[in-house]
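Fold these two proteins, one after the other.
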Amino acid sequence: MKLPFKLIAILVFFSLLGTFVYQAYWLTGLYSTMKHDLEQNIMEAMRTSDYNEMMLRVEGLQKDNENHGEVKVSAGYDSDTGKSFVNSTTTIDRKDTIGKASKEEFFSEEEPRAALHTDGGLDLILRNKSTMLELATYFQQGLHSGLDIISDPDVAVYDSLLSHQLLDKGIDLPYHLEYLYSGFKPDSSHVFTDTIASICTPGYEPSPKAAQYNYAFDIHSNKVYRLTMEPINKLVLRQMSGILATSFVILIILSFSFWFLIRTILRQKTLEEMKSDFTNNITHELKTPIAVAYAANDALLNFNLAEDKKQREKYLCICQEQLQRLSGLVEQILSMSMERRKTFRLHPENFHLHDLFPTLIEQHKLKADKPVEIILDIEPEDLTITADRTHFSNILSNLIDNAIKYSPEKAEIVIRCRKTETGQVEISVSDHGTGIPADKQPLVFDKFYRVPTGNVHNTKGYGLGLFYVKTMVEKHNGNVTVKSEPGKGSTFTIRV
């Protein structure tokens, strides 16, 4: 079952469109996922940096403990009272002028967050990664509340740690870091926010589109690290550059493949039409000489014309001409089929061009149905060529035959033979015929192709002659070109 070309084109178009849409949907989903992961990485970098900064402070306090006494910080949940607590104990060296030890203990009436959602017990918490992270964050905030009483957060250290954490996660954007404290006025009428510290990448000024990431590191979310940086869209696209490039190449290959498929189908369709035209044309051309020869032979046999010598010779000449025409037609068709065979071989020999042209010119003058004038210009006169004599003769014969057929009332043809600087032999056949439009010139060497002439069919042809010329010239390791202008004629040039 043959599908109409329009249906095939529509199916190909929608297949390609579906591929593009699916690829765009997949890339959009991937972009959203990578952007979300990158934002999570930023928050995780802030949390990890805060933990590391806190541990560095603890190490510093431990060193002070060795020199001056004892420092303890603890946070947790009192099962007896049902309250969460943060306490700290500081023992100062006896040499200290104040010489006092202090102990502070803070209790919260709030039920501890770590125990709020534990219907399934501790085992459920440990199996839930998000709950585990929440629990770890809560413990970290609890330790902060106790540690910050003794030692304030070091924003410079936190900035250094955060910079390394971001770089480790592939985030190399400039940023602005702030340490903020939020609280209420004594009468609880207004919320205020103080900027305790601010650090910025040198030369960076946040734009109006800059994104902010807030990390609250105390239990009541009063103390916040605020990170301001430009939108991470470009960074996500940069990380996706390999995938985007691969997808683009795949889409280009698919587009080219579909284009090539459509082009091949169109060429096959055109070829089918040309073959159909060739079959119709060649059938008519084969029938004509057969019918004429049959009529002449019938006249000789059935009308006693064989007894009249003059009439007999006339009808025998008609038969001979038609049989020659038929033979030439069959020979041309056979040549087209033979040149494709693997067993096809040329038999090159060296011969003078001056010995080849006179016979060809005379033959074409005799069989032409119009006046023919052919000018032959060979320089030097003893110019030789190495080629298969039979096929090369057919090449030149086809070019001369075309020049005569497509010339008006009188055919004026110029044949020039020269030797180029590269050592090749150049042969050009020029006429003053109808010419070939510029857009049709690249197609004249295609098999079965004939230049469209509308409804005018004065010139007989099969679309094989120039295809044969091009094929045989290429088998001689040469090339053939055409220069033409409608109404002024054409020039075919062979270089071998």
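Now the second one:
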Amino acid sequence: MKPIRNSRRALALASMVAVGALTLTACNDDAGAADTPTAPPATGAPATPAASPTAAATTPAASGSASAPAGGAASGAPAAPAPAGSAPAAGTTLKLGESATIPFSSGSTKGTIALAVTSIEKGDPADLAPLNLGDKAKGLVPYYIHYKVTNAGSTDLAYTSVNHMKGLLADGTEAQELMVIGSFPKCKSESLPKGFTNGQSATSCAVAMSPEASRIAGAEYWGDPYTLGKGLNWK
């Protein structure tokens, strides 16, 4: 199966948990219960999915993948700094390790976070073996986008999830995304822990897939108040 849909449309569907034909299912025998919250989620906040079985979903990349049309995130000069007290403007580019303070919402929970992509690590195609993706991952290399979330507001953000993080290829276009449900030790992505109040920090990870001939050179956060292709970038 070689989907030729535009990545923006595919990701919009994925955000509504309706990726349809783009969803690849896999069974990870190593998935355990360690990623399941030890307490019920806060009212209105999504619960962490069960760790087993593991499912993976990929969405087609923009240019940089032979089967995808051109498109993707803008790669121009960084936007002008945002006024004091507001979120950085869409398109702002930060250095790895540099944080941005932005509004955050998950269901009925709203707050403020400081977000920073700390590193982008090249993985090994063999890392994907437990996900049983088979030929669907042929010619692709996983990269792990590590990022840090700090509660910069007054709301307890326990059990919410900060996702909407994706990779950018060397030419600035969107990388193919891999979503994993369950345990994937190479790139752990979990809900924020209990008691995630002001000043508390946690780390998370997103998997981006690159063709062997390219590489993941940056990352984009496109969660609210941003949109895909018009978010915050780290390089």
